[in-house]
Structures are given as C-alpha cells and as structure tokens.
Amino acid sequence: MSHPQPTLAVVGVGLIGGSFALAAREAGLVGRVIGIGRSAANLQAAIDLEVIDAASHDIAAVAAADIVLVATPVGQMAGLFDSMAPHLKPGTVVTDAGSTKSDVTALFRAHLPAHLQWCVPAHPIAGSDQSGAAAARAGLYVNRKVVLAPLPETRPEALECVETLWRACGARVETMSAEEHDAVFAAVSHLPHLLAFAYVDMVAGKANAQRYFDFAATGFRDFTRIAGSHPEMWRDIALANRAALLDELASYQASLARLTALVESADAAAMESLFEEAREARVKWHERFEASR
Fold this sequence. Notes:
Layout lengths: L7 E4 L3 H12 L6 E4 L3 H9 L5 E3 L10 E4 L6 H8 L8 E4 L5 H10 L7 E2 L1 E3 L20 E4 L7 H13 L3 E4 L2 H27 L4 H6 L3 H7 L6 H10 L1 H23 L3 H24 L2
Parallel strand pairs: 1-2, 1-4, 2-3, 4-5, 5-6, 8-9
Antiparallel strand pairs: 7-8
Helix pairs in contact: 3-4, 6-10
C-alpha cells in the first residue's frame, strides 16, 4: 500500500512560499497544502488560484502538517516559531526561506529547542519585485540555487526531505554554514538592494524629482529594479545581517571614495582601468551565470 502524500503548511503564502507549494505539488511530492497568514485577501487569492487548498490565520494549523515552510520576513519568525512549538507533531520537518541564516539558526535554537533534529534552515536564491500569492508560479525555482544550512542536530532524513523537495522544484541545492552564507549574501544580494533603495530615495528627494524621472530610461530601470522589492522584508534582512552588511557598506564607501578621487583629479587612465576591470569581472560572471541556466 502506498503512503499518503505529506501535507505541507506554508506560513506566508507569497511569491516564495506560494511558488514552492505549486512546484512541490506539481512534482507530486506533497498532497494537501495549508496556507497560514495574516491577510484574508491574500489567502483567498491563494485558494482561488489553487496555490493552497485551505487557509488559516492560526499558526496552530501546523498541527496537521508533515512539512512546514516558513516564508515570512525574518523579523516575524521569532514569534511564529514560538507560537508553533506546542503544535508541531514529532517528525514534522520545519524549514524556512529567509535571506539570512545565522539569525534564523539562533531562532530555531531559542524557540524550537525540542524540535531541532527536524529543522532545516534554507534560502532559495530566487525572487522578484512582485509579491503576494498572485505572483506565485511553479517554475520560479528552475535552475535557481537554494542554500541549505543544516544544524549539527538536523537528522539526515530531515535534510534529505528538504533537499528532495527543492530539487523537485527544479533548484540546484548547495550546503554551507550559516556564517559563510551571511557573509556571501551581504556582498552579492543585500548590499545591492540597499544601494538601489538609497539611490532611488536620493533622486526622489530632489526638489525637481519629477523632471529627473521624466528622463530616466533603461539604465535607471536596470539599476533600480530591485528597489521595487518588499520594504518590510528588506528592512528585516538589513537588521538581521547587520554586522556583515556594515562590513560591505564600509568596503563600498571606500570604493566610492576612490572613484570620487579619480573624478576630482580627472585621472582618465586610472578611471578607465577601474571600469575595464569591473567590466571584465561582470562579463565573466554573466557568462558563467548564463551557462548554468
């Protein structure tokens, strides 16, 4: 007799959680999907779009789940982990989709100490400037990387469960420590978002801002796309990964100071050399990125 498909609970049915639910169910690895969240309108949209089968505002609904994905902003996770602790069945796998990992690891330890063997911190490297259940799509994770940062206590079968689900979603799974994860992503993900937010805010703060925006074109669009991302989520990421991000901000400020000096001194040769080195690094990265798609 075949075993019934596991029930998945998604806490935070937005782009990330909703896309995971769609892909996992399309792959035949989960059966019933329960959506848990604050917004009645978003949960109803998730039901209407068949992203989830049932909805609840009560975290106690995780009692019916075999797998729980917490896909909320990191700042909400402490309260959610604490509230779900009494309701989790033994053996229910709990994972997350947070963009920082050291803090989430600490939250698992603080709020789910009796359940650590079933906890698998994770970070899918995918996203969009769109949000909510309506943005969810099953193919979001195809050829995207997902980082797993298991705890020393994590049971091999829990890790295997989460890895199998992400691979079924089309993702390429890598494992690293929480500390390495946070250092890497402070540089290549978190800092670019802060720069985009700061730059758009600078332009918007000009007395004649609309005149500037009237002439903004593809360069502005390409550089600022990620400034359309979810403000609450990025506030939480910046605070959660503050130490690593401050290091990267300091490095970037030093680079800006160097560039400022070159412009002030009209050092054309040095400026061109800097631009060429950056261009070559970007071209090499893009070639590798495209080859991996």
